Structure formats: structure tokens, C-alpha cells
Amino acid sequence: MTTATAANGFTDAAFESFLETRSAEPDWLTTIRREAWQAFSEMDWPARNDEEWMRTDIRMFHLDKFALPTEPATAPELAPGLLTHDVELGGTLVSYNSSATEDSLIGELASKGVLFGSLDRLVVEHGDLLRPFFERQVVNRTHDKFAALHAACWSGGTLLYVPKGVAISQPLHGMSAMGDSGVDLSKTLVILEEGAEATMLSETASTSPNGGGLHCGSIELIVEPEAHLRYVNLQNWSTSVWHFAHQRATVDRNASLQWTIGALGSKLAKVNQQVALTGPDANAQVNGVMFTEGRQHLSYNTHQHHMAPYCRSDLLYKSALQDRSRTVWRGMIKVDLAAQRTDAYQRNDNLMLAPTARADSIPGLEIEADDVRCTHGSTSGRVDEPQVFYAMSRGYTRTEAIRLIVAGFFQQVFDRITIESVRNALGDAIASRVQDLDQQAAPEVQG
Predict the structure, then answer these.
(1) Which residues form the SUF system FeS cluster assembly SufBD core domain (predicted)?
(2) Consecutive 10-residue averages of pLDDT for the chain (447 residues)
(3) C-beta atoms surrounding 209 within 10 Å
(4) For the whole model, what pTM was predicted?
């Protein structure tokens, strides 16, 4: 990022300069960007009296400390992704500070009409194909000021498009990396046409363990009739990054989605994750793994929207919290009048590893149909000292015993994940962060 760029920030002049760098984009996309920028300019920042934001304080966030990415960034050598160990990939996309640095797809998939790679590039090359999906407004561009900002200024995104009836056996992998004080505005767009099948692994990382930055992004998953998608998203920014995201999937008739979220990083995260079941017999499974430490604050709002009959959704989020960290989970199952014979479930479990940690869990139901089965649950508790003592009596150290208990706590989620590399990566990442419970009560931690 140049000094001049940083000085421009997110002003009208900076936005016009940003558009000049994207002159190759189709006119319809420029129109969408301008409309979103207008909405962003007119909207207020979220207030503490908003129900969605009352537990998440962003008064310390200042957008003017960051700038629009108007020039490609020079990427350092990046470490391999955590999700790719021993995985044969069908394609790879790597971006750094909102600019694609690596973009590849094996020839066998390309010959079948599969598109995978930089959304910046592919929206220029295949604008007519992608236009209907952009204009669907899968993610509400005016939900809040962050959604409008992203719709206007996204860059460095990833596209996966799988044509009708094509099944991909090799996973595709996307990595978004950020340097110190960097900005990531990436959009992920996945489109599976009727009868298609695919697996996509997506993750984030910071090049500096303490480097700050801003992510304002979106994920849009479109699963057409009888298509099947496995999608994994691992958020692993440094603990100094501000993370704002809107994520939404639409699942049509007889289609299925398995969506796994891992949330380990960021200073503050505010994420809206929505799944809309739009056709009969659609099925969605959502898995969430969250681990927090220090003073991290992770807030995830999940929404399971049943719009058609005979659909099933199953959501399980588990969180473990250390130090003075905090998680907020707000879940909602919404069942429309037309969505008879709905089967929906949501659950959030929290494991408190320190008396100074806090977990807010707010499940909810909004049901208009009268022939449904909808249930929800939430639990919060601490590690039992008798369990620690029992493991130590079998030769484990105290820290090893706690790691075993934490691993067992998450095992229910891991058992639902059908991708071995994802199970291993999440388990290893969490185990490396677990501290001794005695350290959690030390004065320097309570600070």
C-alpha cells in the first residue's frame, strides 16, 4: 500500500480512483458498485441500540486508518494452507491484500467447463454468464454499512462455477492472506448448477502473527437443484484484524450443502451466516468450531430460513474460550408458511476455560407453518477438575489432560465433518492454543 493510497482512505475520490483501476469490468457491475457506494455513503454505522450489535462494540474501529486497494500488492512467500495437508487439489487461488497472486485449475476440469480462480479476472472474461448471479442479490447489499461497503469495493475474490451435471472429486482451495495493516475485501462466489458436485476449501491467514488489518468480505453459495456442495471456511487472521463478513447460501430442490466454519483468529469478528432452503427436500448441515483467547471477541449470527416444504437443516456450533475472550452466538430458525414438514435443529455449546471468559448464546425460532419439527438448545460449562485429575492419574500432564478434554468437547462437530484434512487441521490448531487452566487464573492474564 502506498502512502498516497493510505491518505485517500475510503473517500469518494478514492472510490473513483478504485473504479478507474477496474475499467475492464462490465458496465452492469460498475452500476452495482456505484449504487452500493451511494448506499454506503448515506448509511450510519451500526449503533449499540441495534439488537444485532448491542453485544458487539465497534467504537474502537476507525475506517480512516485503512485504504482502498488500488494497486496490486507484492506478496511475500506464504506458508502452505492448513487445510491442504495431504490433499490432491483440483485448483488453487491465492490472494494477498485483495490481489490474486496465484491462480490455477487442472486442465481436466477446465475442459468440462469448470471455472475457478480470480473473480476479478473471471467476471471480465465471463460477464454474461455471471451477471444473473450478481443481480440475484444473494447477499443483501444494504443490510448494513459493512455490506454496502463490500458490495461497492470488493476485490481479490474467488469464483467456483461448476456446470450442470459435472462432479468434481478433487477439492478446490482458496487462500486469502493479509500483510500488516493490510485490507482484504474479497468476495467468494460458488455456483453449482443442477446436478453438480464439488468440494471447496477456503481459508485466511496473516503474514504477521500480530499484524493488524481489515477484512470486509462476503461468501455467496448458490446450490441449484440436485447439486451437492461441501464448503469449508477457516478464519485464521491474526488477533489484531477487524473481521466483518456477510455469508449466505441458497439451496434448491433435492440439493445438499455441508458448510463448516472454523473461527480462530481476528481481534473482533462480526459475521452474519444465512442458509436459505428455497426448494422442496433441500438439506443443509452447518458446523461451527470457535476457539478464542486473549481479548478476542467473535460474534456470529446464524439464520436458517426454510422457504419450501420437506426441507431439513441441522446447525451445531461449539466454542471454547480462554483468558478474557468473548463469543456471541445468535441463532434463528425461520419457517415460512409454505414450508410445511420442516425439520430444523440448532445447538450451541460453550466450554469456559477461564472464569474471566464470557459466552452469550441466544437461540431463536420464528415459525409460521403448523406442521414442523423445530428444536434448539444451548449449554455453557467449565472443565471438570475430576476429569483433569483422572487423566493426570493415567500419566498425562495437566496441559495434556486439558487438551484431551477440549478435543473431546469438539469431537461431536469433528465427527460430522467428512473431510479428514479439515478435521485434522482444526484439531491441531485448537490443541496448539490450549493453555494450562492454572495459567488462566494468573494475575497477568486477568490484567
Answers:
(1) 182-409
(2) 50 94 95 94 92 93 91 79 92 94 95 97 96 78 91 94 97 95 95 98 92 95 98 96 97 98 97 97 98 97 98 98 96 97 97 95 96 95 88 90 92 93 92 75 39
(3) 9
(4) 0.93
pLDDT tens per residue across span 25-44: 999 999 999 999 999 999 99
Residue 36 neighbours by CB under 8 Å, 6+ apart = 141, 142, 148, 149, 151, 152
b/e burial code for range 158-178 (CB count within 10 A of at least 16 → b): bbbbbbeebebeebbbbbbbb
Q: Enumerate the β-bridge partners of residue 358.
A: 326
Q: Are 231 and 258 in contact (CB under 8 A)?
A: yes
Name residue 162's beta-bridge partners: 192
CB neighbourhood size of 288 (10 A) = 22
Cβ neighbors of 395 (< 8 A, separation 6 or more) are none
**Quick one: cell of 210?**
500480530
Q: DSSP character for 80?
A: P
Strands, E assignment, 114-240: 115-118, 158-162, 172-178, 182-184, 187-192, 197-206, 213-223, 228-235
Q: In Å, what is the CA distance from 228 to each residue of 165, 167, 239?
A: 11, 9, 34
CA–CA gap between residue 20 and residue 363 (Å, rounded):
45
CA-CA-CA-CA torsion sign (279, 150, 205, 428): negative
Classify residue 441 by its DSSP letter.
T
DSSP symbols for 46-76:
P-TTSTTTTT---TT--GGGS----S-----
CA distance 250 to 135: 14
Question: Which residues are paired to 94 by β-bridges?
Answer: 102, 175
